[in-house]
Amino acid sequence: MIDPLDRLVGRELSRPVPAPAIALARHLADRSPSVAAVLFYGAALRDGDMDGLLDFYVLVDSLADWHGSRWRATANRLLPPNVSYAEVAHEGRMVRAKVAVMGVDQFARAAGFAGADSTIWARFAQPAALPYCRDEATRGRVSAAIGDAIVTAARWAALLGPLAGGPLVYWRALFANTYRAELRVEGAGRSDLIVGSAPDRYQRLLAPAWDRAGIATVEHPDGTISPLIPDVDRRAAALAWGRRVRVGKVLNILRLTKAAFTFVDGGHYLAWKIERHTGTRLALTPWQLRHPVLAGPFLLFRLWRRGVVR
To answer: Which branch of life, at top level (predicted)?
Structure first.
């Protein structure tokens, strides 16, 4: 008999995705023979808008093969993921994406409960699809990691959430906590938006995740549920989460700093963002394309001179 959580994860990862997302996933997979899987997630998966920036995670066997650069591979190994910009023409339109890269083993470890960083498990407790996977063995590894991410999130939801409530209450509390652990610009209602985008999914997900985590529950007459967590464990979890919040913010600062030097094709990304938000197309020099962070102030000055920004 298939485990209920495995069944849910397998169904989600196999969901059909729009053709532009498949084209971009195939484009990424063709970049290197070390690509094991390409995950599609985020706002574009939720709302189907292919005109904005799609979000992908590329899982690889060899960081060195993917990057073709020893220092970029080392940076990715020490502080994953590395992030880049990618675009591909598909049926007369340009499809654009932000691409994060990790090793398959890195991804599996980051989905577990032991790590200090919530980045992976918080994202992949949310819906994801698998538009490219090399083989069934890899699909099994990725599915297991996604299942671990959901279980990790559900454990923290029990430890940090209220004493009693419905499943959606626990998920909202969980995502509110994970957003506080990162340097994010989203508003306070972001957790409501995430859970509200697929309430039936989150309603179904909590019980099998808690069951796999070994968390017993009691159901109350009003229909709410309580995870049976000893008070001492709740207090310890609150302290541990406080440490994770501090570590998470530091890791985000370090990743932003690293991205200034490792973000591939950042110049094209910068040009597209400027055109999308201002309607102004800038022709960038080869130097500006290679060094978008250094070029940023000069481009901003050009836009100011044109009266585009104030």
So the answer is: Bacteria
